[in-house]
Design brief:
single chain; alpha/beta; TIM Barrel; 8-stranded parallel beta sheet; 9 helices
């Protein structure tokens, strides 16, 4: 396993549910995705380990789906960044998946069981996803509740696997959220700062905006004497709309790029992000297009289409990886 490989991708390999159109119910599709990721030279897959899947009821555990995925990825010599999230309905403070748990101890026990089970195969774990977004953490309180949970999970994780690496949940809102993370006393409870950066490549200032997100985050880290930590950007990307789908509703940043514009943005985004000394790894979101999940351009963030045919962005990423690693 090459943990030094700086290139990653977000992919929903665990999706085998009606609400995601059973994206990876077919085992052959799992094998296709993993093989293409490996072929591109990508060294990391970021994926969820959904609490609801693993502990559908209090006192019950079912790891079968994840055991299969982890073994396939591990055998392919690709690293996993596992996301510990969201809330199982039976433990939710409101009954919804995106609400904080009614008692943190339930989430901590789930997290500890997952980290323990995959101790020999997975070394890096992320606690939640975008806890600064009301989409994924419905009880927004300036990250106060999340930072309490992060501290408890961090201590529990190190108790069962002292050598594991813990990332904060990827932050959606840039420097203001990084500042809240530190203000709430979470500095000692994540080993790598984790942020998400999206810009629309149609805007001329997009590369400068990407660079400024990193510079501002690094400045805050410096204010807290925490520059020894690395930064991982575990989501960056843009849509690549295929021919015939031009009428697709816009993504959240405006006009949808087509596949060629997406391909050009791959190189620009990665060059810009890796130009900062603290950035250690970058993950493109996503690997494969989705089927009418978001009902807008987000469905086309993939490097490959839903049928696994390659977009120009796949080839662009593969070329960039090969060139970067020769330097």
């Amino acid at each position: 396993m090459d943990e030094d490989n700086p290139f990653g991708v977000l992919e929903f390999l665990h999706w085998a549910h009606p609400w995601n159109h059973n994206k990876y119910t077919n085992p052959e599709d799992l094998l296709k995705a993993i093989a293409l990721i490996r072929d591109a030279g990508i060294g990391w897959i970021r994926m969820d380990f959904l609490w609801e899947d693993i502990q559908p009821r209090n006192g019950e555990s079912n790891f079968s789906r994840y055991d299969t995925i982890v073994e396939l990825v591990y055998r392919s010599k690709i690293n996993i960044l596992g996301i510990l999230n969201y809330t199982a309905p039976w433990a939710s403070s409101t009954g919804k998946w995106n609400a904080p748990p009614k008692e943190n101890k339930y989430f901590v026990e789930y997290a500890q069981s997952v980290i323990t089970r995959y101790r020999s195969q997975i070394s890096h774990w992320e606690v939640w996803n975008e806890p600064d977004s009301s989409i994924y953490w419905s009880a927004q309180d300036g990250l106060k509740g999340y930072c309490v949970l992060l501290k408890e999970v961090y201590n529990a994780a190190k108790a069962v696997n002292p050598s594991c690496t813990i990332l904060n949940g990827g932050l959606a809102n840039g420097a203001p959220s990084v500042r809240l993370l530190y203000k709430n006393g979470a500095q000692e409870y994540f080993d790598i700062l984790n942020i998400h950066i999206f810009e629309n490549p149609f805007y001329s200032y997009a590369p400068q905006a990407v660079a400024s997100h990193i510079s501002l985050a690094a400045e805050i880290m410096g204010n807290y004497d925490d520059t020894g930590k690395r930064i991982w950007v575990t989501e960056t990307g843009c849509p690549g709309i295929p021919k015939g789908q031009e009428s697709t509703a816009q993504w959240w940043l405006g006009e949808n790029p087509d596949e060629e514009a997406q391909s050009r943005w791959v190189r620009t985004a990665f060059e810009t992000l890796f130009s900062h000394v603290q950035v250690e790894k970058v993950f493109w979101a996503f690997f494969r297009d989705c089927q009418d999940h978001w009902h807008d351009g987000i469905d086309y963030l993939g490097l490959v289409r839903g049928d696994f045919s390659l977009k120009p962005s796949f080839e662009a990423y593969k070329r960039f990886i090969a060139q970067f690693r020769r330097i």
